[in-house]
Amino acid sequence: MQRNQIRKIMQNFKEKVVAVTGASAGIGKVIAIKLAKNGVKVVLGARNTEQLKNVLEEIKNNGGEAVFVKTDVNNKADLVQLVNVAVTQYGKLDVIINNAGVARLNRIDELDIDGWEEMIDINIKGTLYGIAAAIPVFKKQGSGHIINIISTSGIKIAPTQGVYAGTKNAVRTIAEAFRQESDGSIRITGISPGFIKTDFAVKSVNTEEMKTAASMVVEELAISPEAIANAVIYAISQPKDIEIGDIIIRPSKQN
């Protein structure tokens, strides 16, 4: 690729506007900060406004540009507002990253029905609400990019992860169907992290024994969330006629 082509691609990348759900902590926070460091205008969405303010401050202290919107992905109106703020503030929305997610890991016969419903509401319906909010804007613009942060759960089924994996496989199925329905103007990428150095795994279990075990796995095996942020940048930075489909990123030692 010629130098001027690379320069043009990077300039286009820096002009992008990206909305990120679950941006207050974990993978979403790292994605947002890294995008902003690379010149992207970021619209941060999450429920915890205090944490969002901290992320916003970090971005601005590093010379980046961002705004935040209190966003509960259980509420479809919140996703519409997130998209509308992007368009109002920056004139467009190039990418929505459906990152917000939750895991409640239990054996199925333990009947954690509340946990099942929470995962269905956030992981499936929350992602659908994000997609639904962005599509009208993308169609009006004639372009857009949906990135779903999924999981290696569902690629490999494991005990206690049945319902969680089911929600993640639902996202894969929905995204693939929409990819085939799309005329190419709206691109779709799925990124499936394995064990990542955040508190997500520890929060997913409910006993001290399981929390200790999860902490040990994260400490010994997990990789930096920057790996996921780098994958997002790779997918977004491609020319508009190239779609990056499914990416699996996990520790090389992970089974």
Key words describing this protein structure:
alpha/beta; 7-stranded parallel sheet; 9 helices; 255 residues; globular; Rossmann fold
Write a compact overview of the structure shown.
The protein has 255 residues and is of the alpha/beta class. Helices cover 51% and strands 15% of the residues.
Describe this structure in words.
By secondary structure, the protein is of the alpha/beta class. The chain is 51% helix and 15% strand. It has helices at residues 3-14, 26-37, 49-61, 76-90, 113-141, 162-181, 200-203, 208-221, 226-236; strands at 17-21, 41-46, 65-70, 95-98, 144-149, 186-193, 246-249. It has a 7-stranded parallel sheet, sandwiched between helices. The longest helix is centred in the middle third of the chain and has 29 residues, at 113-141.
Topology (SSEs and partners):
Elements: H1 3-14, E1 17-21, H2 26-37, E2 41-46, H3 49-61, E3 65-70, H4 76-90, E4 95-98, H5 113-141, E5 144-149, H6 162-181, E6 186-193, H7 200-203, H8 208-221, H9 226-236, E7 246-249
Parallel strand pairs: 1-2, 1-4, 2-3, 4-5, 5-6, 6-7
Helix pairs in contact: 2-9, 4-5, 5-6
